[in-house]
Amino acid sequence: MKKIIAANWKNNGSKKFVKDYFEYFFKNVDSNNEIIIFPPDLYISQVNDYRRKKNFMLGSQNINYVSDDETFTSGHSSDMFIDNGCSYTLVGHSEVRGHDITYSEAAKSLWASNDLQVIFCVGESADTKKDGNTQNVISKQLEDLCDKRSYPKVIPKKVIVAYEPVWAIGTGNIPKIDDISFIHKFIKTYVSENHPFLKEKDIMVLYGGSVNSINASEILNAQYVDGVLIGGASLDSKEFTKICNLKI
Ligand code: PEP
Question: Which of 124, 134, 202, 228 lies at a CB distance of 3.0 to 4.6 Å from 158, suitable for a disulfide?
Fold first, then answer.
């Protein structure tokens, strides 16, 4: 079954990195999965040039919540990302939420266009997990996604949520596979019951947090997992290509 395999390069890259990365990737990729790469903004255009074989999609790691305001210095509009080949954007990654934007502000700018599919990131902290509050926190995070006011311009055709437990990001720790399936099902049910426009069949949930070429197959084969969002391991072209080539 076709899954989403997404690479979040975070704040990494250089022109040489991009060149070397795709040299290996194009020689070795043989995948039926939907591959998405999220480079830093400055390299989106260069990565877009490497899409000549069109065997991957491109995304931006964040959109500025006032990005469509043309008078805003330092903004990037959603049209600019689309113009540079992006068809996805991450919203509310745990490394972004709570810094320069609030989660809710980001959510309000969500669906500027159906040409830029949002991947909406949620996940609990270690303390939340310890206190047994994971489902409460995730429902709260999903409220903006399910708020009709988040869609002033377009009615979305689908929703993609990335479930990324904060304690699993970059730590080498992952939840038990059954726990991943349980939370993914919880997210699908919550969104289908609360979203103003979408049904369960329109909702995909990706898992993110310490995915690598050793654990990816088991995670991707788990119930209710529609794909993975990979940080650290996606920076190694060999490692990422291996995951892309998995036949699920
Ligand atoms: C991420 O930052 O989205 C992520 C999942 O990171 P890592 O794979 O390194 O845990």
Answer: 202
**Is the CB of residue 92 below 6 angstroms from any atom belonging to ligand 1?**
no
* Phi and psi angles of residue 148, each rounded to the nearest 5 degrees, phi first: -55, -30
Give the Cβ contact number of residue 9 at 10 Å.
22
pLDDT at 73: 76
Give the residue from 172, 159, 165, 247 showing the smallest Cα distance to 208. 165
Q: Which of 66-80, 101-115, 142-156, 229-243 holds the top average pLDDT?
A: 229-243
> H/E element holding 35?
strand 34-38
Beta strand ranges found along 82-214 (DSSP E)? 86-91, 117-122, 159-163, 203-208
Domain residue ranges of the chain, discontinuous segments joined by +? 4-244
Q: Ligand 1 atom closest to Cα of 90?
A: 3
Out of 43-52, 55-64, 73-82, 234-243, which region has the weakest mean confidence (pLDDT)? Answer: 73-82
User: What class does CATH assign to 4-244?
Assistant: alpha beta
Q: Is the CB of 39 under 6 A from ligand 1?
A: no
Q: How confident is the model at residue 65 (pLDDT cuts 50, 70, 90)?
A: low
Q: Is the CB of 172 under 6 A from ligand 1?
A: no
